[in-house]
Design brief:
Layout: E1 10-14, E2 25-30, E3 33-39, H1 45-68, H2 77-91
Helix pairs in contact: 1-2
Length: 94
Amino acid sequence: MSKHTPGPWRYWRCKDGSFDDRNDYAQIASGKTHVAQVRIVSTTEADMRLMVAAPELLEALRDLLEWFDDESRSPRPAPLKKARAVIAEVEGSE
């Protein structure tokens, strides 16, 4: 399992002082830990919300899979297989 910066994450917009809108960026952090710096010109507000939600989304997906590990509860194994593949990709263990 790869190590990810734990959530919750947050972001805020920054400016680099050049007065050029193309140089606007956002910082993403968890507490005092820097996670990423993203150029806003190529990133939408919806993208930022998705990035910031990543730790909670991964935790929710793991919780659902744990609940469905009991095969008697699993009416649809295809979505579970997809969820496991996503987690493996995120963790770098595909």
